[in-house]
Design a protein that fits this description.
- Helices cover about 35% and strands about 20% of the residues.
- It has a 5-stranded parallel sheet, covered by helices on one side. Strands 20-21-24-23-22 form a 5-stranded antiparallel sheet. The protein has a 4-stranded parallel sheet with strand order 11-10-9-15.
- The chain has helices at about 15-25, 40-45, 50-60, 70-85, 90-100, 145, 150-155, 170-185, 200-215, 305-320, 345-350, 370-375, 400-410, 415-420, 430-445, 450-460; strands at about 10, 30-35, 100-105, 110, 115, 120-125, 125-130, 135, 165, 185-190, 220, 225-230, 235-240, 245, 250, 255-260, 270-275, 275, 290, 330-335, 340-345, 360-365, 380-385, 390-395.
- A hairpin with a 5-residue loop joins strand 23 and strand 24 (about 390-395).
- About 45% of the residues are buried.
- It has 3 domains: about 10-40 and about 90-135 and about 255-320, FAD/NAD(P)-binding domain; about 145-255, 3-Layer(bba) Sandwich (FAD/NAD(P)-binding domain); about 330-450, 2-Layer Sandwich (Enolase-like, domain 1).
- It has 16 helices and 24 strands.
Length: about 475
């Protein structure tokens, strides 16, 4: 008789923890899911769900046909309504109904196979760390004294900031800058690097910047914030080059950091690297019997990646069929208007790896469905090897996050760009942007080339 309380203990009730616990229960394991606040994690309460609800309201796509700019209180009411409808999917009752032992408590590792709660200890041969991440504020003198918003605090504010300074021109910064602007704020984005969306193809950053500036958002790049002061009712961000930007609120969107320390992983021999839990390809930590999944491991901090990692952990921890995580084909989306969706490598990244690349593109302005929908802003861009094997793709435009999956699947299963051109795409749909891009492979290969001339001679002979 052992003193194990569970087969597997999961610390953290965000996406990675929820998927791990649900998977374990489905396999018949006795699982404990420990969360110190509320199940659903950052994604449900302060991240993806509330931010995308606010974005949708600002675009005028509310469930009851609300128009954009109706006011902050209406926007927050819409946000809370959407969140309340989604919350039951992640509720303790639902997971207890699956057979999961849900415990709302702080938790820390108490050594190998042991987890310490406020009032007791649990023990299991398998432990999973899924404690997520938190906003990372830059060490700018005066910022803490002045006060600032993050995604954790922004959605509970009683009023819309009149003049908002957005620190950070990455996905979160631009998504919310556009949203606050559409709701009525005067917004200035400050980005330290030469262009916004620095992880994307350079053309994408320039394109999105132009669109946001066209709407009336001020974007300042190459701005190294040196200090923050308060002057009367305003907060002022001072740049190292002497520039000053004033506003009545500052939103910090400069990144996130793994939230591993509270679980005291070192007590069980779990090593950290730059604050993130170190894991191998099987998502095992440096301590036997302990795995980690989601943002706490660093790397790609996306909800869908956390979901994917959790499934790898379930397989490795609870079955005799091991699996390794593979991040070569991970799509992601920036929910600006237009959306930016990306998978794989940019042309520059592929060339840096020694690849010979070809780039093919198409514009939504030439797509019939985009024309009739009034959604002609944007383009697609696919990077391939000379034989058409897809190395990466970017789509900028309405619904880009949905459209990118065709290219992601093609990459995953080795379907070439010319093969996509041969597939029948329904007309008129936005998905034809992929076909139009793929058609460019044939046009470049069979227009004015030796191969084209050969084909023409064969056709003339046949005729």
């Amino acid at each position: 008789m052992t003193d194990y309380t569970h087969d597997i203990i999961v610390i953290g009730g965000g996406t990675a923890g929820l998927v791990t616990a649900a998977g374990a229960a489905a396999l018949g394991a006795k699982a404990a899911l420990i969360e110190r606040e509320a199940l659903g994690g950052d994604c449900l309460w302060t991240g993806c769900v509330p931010s995308k609800a606010l974005i949708a309201f600002a675009r005028g796509h509310g469930e009851e046909g609300r128009e954009k700019g109706e006011g902050w209180s209406d926007a927050i009411a819409w946000l809370r309504s959407a969140r309340d409808r989604i919350a039951p999917h992640d509720s303790p009752e639902r997971f207890r109904g699956m057979g999961v032992d849900v415990i709302l408590s702080a938790a820390r590792l108490a050594g190998p196979e042991r987890v310490e709660l406020a009032d007791r200890r649990l023990r299991a041969k398998r432990i999973v760390l899924a404690t997520g991440s938190e906003p990372a504020a830059p060490p700018i003198p005066g910022l803490n004294d002045a006060g600032f918003l993050t995604n954790v605090t922004a959605f509970d504010q009683p009023a819309l900031p009149t003049r908002l300074i957005m620190l950070g021109g990455g996905p979160i910064g631009l998504e919310l800058a556009q949203t606050y602007h559409r709701l009525g704020s005067t917004v200035t984005v400050l980005e330290r690097l030469p262009e916004v969306l620095p992880r994307e193809d350079p053309e994408v950053g320039r394109f999105v910047r132009e669109r946001l500036e066209h709407e009336g958002i001020t974007i300042v790049t190459g701005f190294a914030a040196e200090r923050v002061t308060c002057e009367a009712s305003l907060k002022v961000v001072h740049g190292a080059d002497g520039r000053r930007v004033a506003g009545n609120e500052i939103f910090v969107a400069t990144g996130r950091r793994p939230n591993a320390r509270d679980a005291e992983p070192e007590r069980a021999g779990v090593e950290l690297a730059d604050g993130a839990v170190r894991v191998n390809a099987r998502l095992e930590t440096t301590a036997r019997g302990i795995w980690a999944a989601g943002d706490v491991t660093g790397g790609l901090l996306f909800t869908h990646v956390a979901d994917y990692m959790a499934k790898i952990v379930v397989r490795n921890a609870l079955t005799p069929f091991p699996a390794k995580a593979d991040y070569r084909v991970v799509p992601w989306v920036t929910f600006t208007d237009p959306e930016v969706a990306r998978v794989g490598l940019t042309a520059a990244e592929a060339e840096a790896r020694g690849e010979r690349v070809a780039t093919f593109r198409a514009s939504f302005s030439e797509l019939d469905r985009a024309i009739v929908d009034g959604a002609t802003v944007g383009f697609s861009k696919v990077v391939t090897r000379p034989n058409g094997r897809i190395l990466g793709a970017t789509i900028v435009g309405r619904g880009a996050g949905e459209l990118i999956m065709e290219l992601a699947l093609a990459m995953r299963y080795g379907i070439t760009l010319p093969a996509l051109a041969r597939e029948i795409h329904p007309y008129p749909t936005m998905s034809e942007i992929v076909k139009r891009t793929a058609d460019e492979w044939y046009r470049t290969r069979y227009t004015g080339t030796r191969a084209a001339r050969l084909v023409q001679r064969v056709v003339r002979w046949w005729l």
